[in-house]
């Protein structure tokens, strides 16, 4: 909006972007040299002049290391860089009146250290390096006794050149041809060919090979093969091949005969093939004439297998040149050809007059130069070589010294002028680089655009203007224009026309020599028409003194100017011009109406927005400052405009009022569309006044609470997944409705959908209460899912809010859970009291919410409007607390009958998607100790997933579940180790502290706990889960009870008395967690102990002993009605008749006897499980430990 305001106020189009460019180059001199030899890495070059003393090592910046030979009469003949980039060989000639001319070879490194190779003779040395300059071969024509092979360090190996029947004598000519790395090669002595192989037993074959009059050798990639050229004008080259030891040689006859006569060979592909210039036979006489057509020339490609391809017909004497990538190009007197590796012509050019030089760049492009200085760039276009660019240089006798894809270096005028022909975006351009010197080699510097240029009386390093690291132009007021090394333009601020120049800097290596001159950097400022409007100078000797003057007064609006910074020409050509184009210059900002209007709008906007962003939501300034800003801007600006009080501020007040009004409307619209913006605005007046009505709107409720719905749905889905992939099976539950005093309870059967309507539509409290393993949590999670679906269809429906089990008060827990909504506290309280949410607590009996806290919530205002969805183990105290509500439902999920079992089996298909069917043994296990033929849902689910072969009891099923989640065999040692750890963990947490929660973070056994967590045995138990949970718990309480029972058995099995059973059955912390795995009542831990300790006579005797002790010690505490209520229903009437004359203690002893004799003893377990909580904290007397007994389990 601010940018739009600025653009409208100025009424102009966006200016063109600022552009920057640099032109020029710099040269730096070093010592005189006519020859240059780059080192292996390309960052240094050896510079020398043949037959002159001394040489130098020059780096890419022109820095020079002078190397003295030690003998004033020594003259450098040649410098040969070695494969070691830090070393080279120097061939020196020493002339003295006494000894005449003598030769020497030195090894020199980059530190200037010289080492003379004294083993070499001093007369008439012939030197030849290997292909990669790994070794240097040397032989003396004066004696020809030894072939010397020198490595880069100057170490020498001599090979005797002993020829049988021939005395050592001087030779007229010697040709050395090392092959590869110099370990093998060829030697021609007086036109006799010999082979050298340092890896063979006989390193020198003294017998000349079967060839004579050798004029030239062309090695191939195979050390045993060489092309041999005879005297000029003789037959084609011969391919000679020797054995591994050089013992035998033979001429290789190709299948296809080579041409009879060859004028000149050209090496191709490293010598493995040759292009030959062959004379074509004369044509026959034409009819009616006596003349014959002249013989022509053609290029033929030959390999060891013979001629390849049809050849290329040429006009006149051809020349072949190769590009850096190995592509072959040819020219004759009129045309240019691109030759293929198959011996044919790939493309040819049109006829060009006077082609003087062919300069290949790649397989696709090449330069050609005519004698008149006309330069063309050729490119391959199908079968044609097309001219893509051309230029007339106007040079006299130009000679190309170096070239690449960007241009060509020429020397002209008898090597006194050096020119650079560059290919740019606008075509070819020629620049004079140096003049007045005798020029030699031109060598590119690897990895840069620099060149070394050899010349007399001095040589140079040349670099382009692109190496400018920084150009900076600054004006007073902080405006700064800067061009970086990569051409990036950075403009800080906007310069003002009429402002003084504050800085002028150019960071460029070419100015190093100019810093001591009296001249300096010049700057010119021109308008769009090219008229000069300002100019200045910065002297190098006075860097602080900047002279600048505007020649025309600045205008009242913004203008675009061009700036040009130029350096003086230094010595022989260094110059630079840096230009900035389309630079906007404006008048002082604070004097412009639109700027002041924009600043006023920004100030008011900050006054409105900063409190929203910086202040705490509960802070009073956060609520009132924005409203104050709206009022001041609208009322004050309007009144000032009417009275004319603000005219001196040069602010467009209607714009300010319009912007502020638009901001208010924009914030309101954004708040309606974005819940995140609404959360920011809801703490601020006047937006907060509209929050409550908006949250009653169905469309806005759906949008605002969408995140909460996703979070809750993900929470229940994760909980179901952590419960071993729990799938909800919709079975009817037994529901008893309580509607207040005087209204009898109303029992019914309800489905999950009907319960959801009771909860969300009729706002009834639901208490899901049953023994462990019946599916309380699964039903609760399904009700939450259904409520979310109902909300998405009817946004007026209440939403679920999960209460932290660690909270001690439901109301405060609900308020804390709603903090993530990002709403003010009073608005959250209003939403709770108006029934927009219902509270969810899974595991009421395991939470810290006491029955008294539940009663208080139900009696408060919030309890009348915000329903409860609770799950709990059977507990009379919580049922009594729920009776204080006006209407609540007791929901009890039923055990599975046969139909329910079938639906359960269908809900958990096998890997092929087919319903699983439990075996008879597994069905018996899943019934527990129930006599009605129904099944425990938890046991069914575990049996369907983990009930394999060998599971014959509830205990084995739980062990199989433990091993199955760990994905290990139940009898594996690792499983037993982890099982022992889990047992100790449960003994410490549940038995010792009655806590279902286990500390995870920073636990010394965290790595083992992580294994159980990753396996799914443990699940996070934090109210707000994070990456690393603080507390964890077992995926089901029954697994923790099972592991605790195992740990108790391991501890007490060998003792004479099992008093731990009384605590497991009677301590309130255990007794309130009821289960029906074994009996219809009793703590889950006691029932697991009954399974683990063994259902045998020892266990029944111990239970009977405890009950008899209890009867004897608690005759006054027990009541006969309580005892009768503890026995099974079928025994109750019989004991009532027989016990009329008995006291409570005697009745308990009689009940113990009758229950022990009834059936298989289930009645005794039920009596024990119900009596122990009634007399707690009484415990059986402790007896001395009995002798150890063998574990029968």
TrEMBL record:
Residues spanning the membrane: 593-615, 655-678
Domain of life: Bacteria
Region feature Disordered, mapped onto this chain: 244-265
SUPFAM superfamilies named among the record's database cross-references: YVTN repeat-like/Quinoprotein amine dehydrogenase
Keywords: Membrane, Transmembrane, Transmembrane helix
The keyword GTP-binding appears for this protein: no
Keyword Transmembrane: yes
Protein name: NACHT domain-containing protein
